[in-house]
Amino acid sequence: MRRLQPEEGLAFVRSVRIPFLDPFHGDRVQQLRDERAARTLETDRAWVAEADGRFVANACIASLDLTLPAAPGQEAPVVAFAGVSAVGVHPTHRRRGLLRQLMARMLDDARSRGEPFAGLLASESVIYGRFGFGHATTAQELTIDRRDAAFLGPVPELDLRIVSGPGEAREILPSLFDRQRRRRAGEPSRSAQAWDHALEESAEHRDGAMGLMHAVCAEGYVSYRVHEGRVMSGERDRAVVEELRGLTPEVEAALWRYVFDVDLVGEVTARRRPVDEPLRWRLADPRRLRVTSVDDRLWVRILDVPAALEARGYRRAGRVVLEVVPPRDALDGRADGAPGRWVLDAGPDGASCRAARRGEDADVRLGVADLGSLYLGGFSAFELAAGGRVEELRPGGLDAADALMAAAPKPLTGTGF
Ligand SMILES: CC(C)(COP(=O)(O)OP(=O)(O)OC[C@H]1O[C@@H](n2cnc3c(N)ncnc32)[C@H](O)[C@@H]1OP(=O)(O)O)[C@@H](O)C(=O)NCCC(=O)NCCS
After folding, report:
1. Domain range 158-272, CATH architecture
2. How far apart are CA 215 and CA 213, in angstroms?
3. Phi/psi at 280 (nearest 5 deg)?
4. What is the pLDDT of residue 332?
5. What spacing in Å lies between the alpha carbon of 85 and ligand 1's midpoint?
6. What mean pLDDT is predicted for residues 87-112?
7. 158-272 and 2-138 share a CATH fold
8. Are 97 and 1 in contact (CB under 8 A)?
9. Any idea which residues carry the catalytic annotation?
10. Reported confidence tier of residue 209, pLDDT bands at 50, 70, 90
11. Would the CB of 90 count as within 6 Å of ligand 1?
12. Is the CB of 97 under 6 A from ligand 1?
C-alpha cells in the first residue's frame, strides 16, 4: 500500500470503478468524466494497494470544509475536514484488511494536517461505525401531487428567471450555494468537479428525463428535471427537484410555490430535503406530502475532540463532561486522540474543551462514532441512549449533553464528494 504518484490519477479513477461495479469500457462520456475526476483528484491524498503491478484497492481524501451549527444570530462556522471518498477494494482482494489499512492511513493524514474530523458518505451503513464514524446527517425524499399543494398563507413574490444549460448555471449557482449553505449545518463545500457533476447533462445522468432547469433569483434557486409522461393518455409529467435553496425560509417557500405552479406537471418529488422540512407546515393538507425515502448522508469521525467541539456554535450555555470510548477497530493500534474524558464548557459566545482532571466525573459515556452522531445536532443524546448507544452516568447527564449539542435547523448534507 502506498500513496499515489501525481501521474497516476487516471489509473486511480479507473481502479475506483471496479469495486463500484462500473468498469471503464471506452465510452466517450466515461472518458471525459474520468479525465475530469483525475484532474481534480488530490493525488497527494490518495492511496492505493498494488498487487502484480495493478491497483487492487483505492481511497482518497478531498480537502473540503463543512458548515457547523451556529450560535443564535451568528453566521455558521465553516471548518476544514477530510472528505473520505473513492473507498474501494477490488472483489479479488476483499476481507483481508485492505480497507482497514487504507482507513488508518487516511485518518493519520487528516490528523497530521490538523483536520478536527473526517466525513464520508457510505455505500453501506454497516462498514464505517467500527472505525468511529457516526451517522450525523439524514435526508429525506418528499413527494406530493401538485394539485394537493395548496398553501395556508401567501408567500413572497420572487423575481425569478429560468436558466438552462450548464454554462450559465455554472456562473450563477455556486455563489448562491456558498451563501445558502451557511444557513444550515452539515453542508460541505462543493468542488469544481462536484459542480460539473451536479450540472452534467449526459444521457446517463438524465436517466430518461429532460434537461435540468434552474429558476433563479437573487436569494435562491431551484433546480429540477421533468420526466415526461404520456400526456395524451392522461399521464402527466413528473418533476424531480434536485436542489431547492433559499437564503430564508420565506424564499424557500416561494421556490416551492413556483415548482407547484409549473403547468403539465403532476407529481413533484424533491430529493435530499432536510428532516425538518418547513414546507409541511405551510401546506393546507400536510398529509399529502409523502416521505418516499429516508437516507443517511454524512458520517462523521471526530479526530480531535477539543478542536471539533470548540469550532461549532452553541445555542445555550452549559457544561458537560463526556467520556469517549475508543471505536471497535483501533486501526492497528495507531494513536487516536479522540477517546478520553473531556470537559466542554460552551455557550453562544464560544466554547472551550479540555481533558478532564481527576475528580471531574463524566455525565455521559459514548463511543467516538456516537460523538460524531451528536456533533452536528442531527441526533440527540436522549435518542442515542434509548438506542443503547449513549450511557447516562449522572442523572441529568443526557439533558446536559442535549442542551449543548442541539442544533436548529437540523443538519443536512446535499452535496456528495
Ligand atoms: C467495503 C469494502 C471497501 C471493504 O474492504 P475490505 O478490504 O474487504 O475490508 P477489510 O478486510 O479491511 O475489513 C475490515 C473489517 O470490516 C468488515 N467489513 C468490511 N466490509 C464490510 C461489509 N461490506 N459488510 C460487513 N462488514 C464489512 C470486515 O469483515 C472486517 O472486519 P473483521 O476483521 O472483524 O472481519 C469493499 O468490500 C468494497 O470495496 N466494497 C464495494 C465498494 C464499497 O462499498 N465501497 C465503500 C464506499 S463508501
Report:
1. 3-Layer(aba) Sandwich (3.40)
2. 7
3. -55, -40
4. 78
5. 14
6. 97
7. yes
8. no
9. 128, 417
10. confident
11. no
12. yes
pLDDT at 231: 66
- Residue keyed to cell 474524558: 341
pLDDT tens for residues 223-254? 999 998 776 777 789 999 999 999 999 999 99
pTM (global) more than 0.85: yes
The three grid cell numbers given for residue 384, joined into one nine-digit string = 442515542
Digit-coded pLDDT (tens) for 306-326: 999 999 999 999 999 999 999
Candidate CATH numbers 2.60.120.330, 3.40.50.720, 3.30.1050.10, 3.20.20.240; the one for domain 305-405: 3.30.1050.10
Whether omega before 19 lies within 30 degrees of 0, making that bond cis, reads no
- Contacts with 163 (C-beta within 8 Å, 6 or more apart), sequence order: 169, 172, 213, 214, 215, 216
C-alpha cell of residue 117: 474530523
Q: Which fold has domain 2-138?
A: Aminopeptidase (3.40.630)
Q: In sequence order, which residues have a C-beta less than 8 Å from that of residue 220 and are 6 or more positions away?
A: 158, 176, 180, 244, 245, 246, 247, 251, 252, 255
Distance from the alpha carbon of residue 95 to the mean position of ligand 1, in angstroms: 6
Using CA positions, which residue lies closest to atom 4 of ligand 1?
99
Please write the tens of the pLDDT for every residue from 45-66.
999 999 999 999 999 999 999 9
